[in-house]
Amino acid sequence: MHMADALLAPAVAATMYVTTGTAAGVSIYKLKKDDEPQKLPVMAVTASLVFAGQMINYTIPGTGSSGHMCGGMLLSALLGPQAGFLSMIVILTIQCLFFADGGLMALGANIWNMAFYGCFVGYYLIWRPIVRSHWFGQGRSAQRARIIAASIIGCIATLQLGAFSVVLETSLSGITELPFGAFLALMQPIHLAIGLVEGLITSAVLVYVYESRPELLQCVESAESGNAKSSLKTVVAVLAVTALVVGGGLSLLASSNPDGLEWALFGNAEQGYAENMGLDEENFGVSSKAAETAGAIQEKTSFLPDYAFSDSDTPAGTSVSGIVGSAMVAGAAVLICFAGGFFRKKKTI
After folding, report:
1. Contact, 29 vs 127, CB < 8 A?
2. What is the pTM for the complete model shown?
3. Each residue of 129-176: pLDDT tens digit?
């Protein structure tokens, strides 16, 4: 769902930077009151895991499209909405600047579409109410069921909101070759399927954490903390190794089909599927001086564009991108926490 600069008018892009920046500012203010130091290593490894997970596009059968996880629901369930949102900003910014994934001018919109809904709407309206409810009864099996339900419902709902925002932002940008109704009719169903798969992936990770270290999950009753089966170091190590395996190895198995947004715009006629909106990939959307400047900056900063070595198709470029990117995300998350003074008070864990 990473939008290119050509899909946005400068005024719309600037508005989305302001809204995203406001949400980030509020998140920073609230996090300064946080006193949970165990979030620091968990934030680093889960942000890395989401970065790696976004590299794996999974095929949506029968469509000629693919999708990848956004990760907002996963991060907010583990870190809370504010830390989860800031982690997503780190992920999407590194993707944009160093891997040319999503436009620089469109970064504010991409953060809003892919992070805000999952971290805030997903947490406050779906995750917290369901996990705290009495759905499925009492006991650990019921809590597991609530975690799975919240993950799937949350991912589906928040991806629908993100997809709708893409259509709305594009429409407000005045791109006349994308009729609102037709574009919406393509974007919503494909992201329904993508959200379902992400929900299953998210629930698997969160159930593992619940079984291993339940107090790491937001809104799980404190009584559950006595049921930990693994140490914090073990859980962090497992998540870190998973991020490296996913980014450095499994990313090689990613689907070559276009993702949901690209599929809606350009179709996949080469593989025998529909053309959908039928736009020309080399010439579409709006052009502006702001977009040209942003593109020039991005061209200089991206040392592994499209998660590959420049002028090389070797698979090693993808593996290196996954490992280097995951490490960069983890390092950036830790540095931002220290610079911002988050999680400074020490507790016995």
Report:
1. no
2. 0.94
3. 999 999 999 999 999 999 999 999 999 999 999 999 999 999 999 987
